[in-house]
Design a protein that fits this description.
Blueprint: E1 15-19, E2 32-36, E3 42-45, H1 52-59, E4 64-68, H2 74-77, H3 80-87, E5 91-92, E6 111-112, E7 118-123, E8 132-138, E9 141-147, H4 165-178, E10 184-187, H5 196-219, H6 225-232, H7 241-258
Parallel strand pairs: 3-4, 4-5, 9-10
Antiparallel strand pairs: 1-2, 2-3, 6-7, 7-8, 8-9
């Protein structure tokens, strides 16, 4: 095992991770679909891309109570309509246009109607405007289904202009206040992590450091997002620069708004 990778974190038997075969620079090993078993059927979080083998593997785990989408990006939602046709289960999301035979998700902090476990909705805009997380509680076990707000490895792109850095920093602060030391992180990409709270602290420190670097790049004469990327992300594979450029654009927008 790569020593830089965290040790594997076991999941309880009622929670399964099924990873889609869509690895890439933005999806890491692939999109993680989570299957939460209840006495009334499985709850599916992010069915993932339109890869029939993956969707069949998920639907084959048993009847589905409903499906939840953490945000609108295609690597999370592309398979939702196909999955709905096969399972007949409603699809719910923050964005009403993504819902299929189901209501948009309830207000921030509300609990979804689920047997055997508690699922609490946490609005976490920033990566996208419609990003949400779900806090899971079952007995003494607690976890956070984080979508792309927190990843199991690396850091999240704030996809400007849909994503906003100010909103993202507020979402991280909200998660810092909500999470305890025992919340397991269940991200949409990368490995499960033992402490969601520790990842939040790392993310907050990383964003503040990046903002300092963007300020310094500006003082050095960089004017555009691309020019900032060439300075701040000079050690990053150039194939990732387009995503970095969107994140830098969000940082510049945030700094300009802050004066």
């Amino acid at each position: 095992m790569n020593p830089a990778e965290p040790d594997p974190v076991p999941l309880p038997e009622w929670c399964q991770l099924v990873r889609a075969a869509n690895p890439g620079p933005m999806t890491l090993e692939g999109t993680n679909t989570y299957v939460l078993a209840t006495t009334r059927g499985n709850i599916i979080v992010d069915p993932g891309p339109l890869i029939e083998e993956h969707l069949c593997a998920v639907s084959g785990l048993g009847p589905v109570l409903f499906t939840v989408l953490t945000h609108h990006h295609l690597d999370h939602t592309e398979g939702a309509a196909w999955f709905h046709e096969v399972t007949g289960a409603p699809v719910r999301a923050q964005d009403p246009s993504l819902c299929i035979d189901g209501d948009p998700l309830a207000p921030d902090g509300a609990y979804l109607d689920t047997p055997d476990l508690q699922l609490r909705l946490i609005h976490t805009p920033g990566h996208t405007a419609d990003s949400i997380c779900l806090e899971i509680t079952r007995g003494t076990w607690r976890g956070l289904l984080s979508g792309d707000t927190l990843l199991g490895r690396g850091t999240t792109v704030v996809a400007h202009p849909d994503g906003q850095l100010g909103a993202y920093l507020e979402s991280l602060a909200k998660l810092r206040a909500v999470l305890g030391p025992d919340h397991v992180l269940l991200p949409a990409h990368g490995p499960v992590r033992a402490s969601a709270a520790a990842v939040v602290e790392q993310y907050i420190a990383h964003r503040q450091a990046r903002l300092d670097e963007v300020r310094a790049a500006r003082m050095a004469g960089a004017q555009t997002a691309r020019q900032v990327v060439e300075i701040v992300y000079s050690d990053v594979d150039p194939s990732l620069w387009p995503a970095a450029e969107r994140t830098v654009a969000a940082a510049l927008d945030y700094l300009d708004a802050a004066g």
